[in-house]
């Protein structure tokens, strides 16, 4: 077997799903043992006023908790760039996650992040497409794997849980379809 550098998975939780939302939590990791998670303090962001009570019910994080326990936005940006610069980074909602990543860096006055977030389906299809005869076979295999990965982890609506799910999904793919030297 070849040694491949594991991709990194990332997820954000946000104040709402509106266009005025802002990131309130981020988690990232390439294995379950190295998942890193930060609550994000909105104190540096004068535009971070949008708050959805229904979203709070889902993730269980209050604005007060973020202000008291959150990491300053500029520090979160530094942590992310230090950990993810030059790495392949994936999520299952990259459109939203890239939006919140950009909002975080903008609010912190950090310019552009040193990485981009791609959709996990790109990674999964790169691995599985050469092995599948039909497109429908690929779609069915991915759905089966998602169900199996979800069943292994107790559901929470938090960034760390979502990263753990993505890691489990990728690990299941790698165990089921390992890359060999001949590939």
From TrEMBL:
- A molecular function GO annotation: nucleic acid binding
| InterPro entries tied to this protein | RNaseH-like_sf, RNaseH_sf
Q: What is this protein called?
A: Exonuclease domain-containing protein
Gene source species: Syntrophotalea carbinolica (strain DSM 2380 / NBRC 103641 / GraBd1) (Pelobacter carbinolicus)
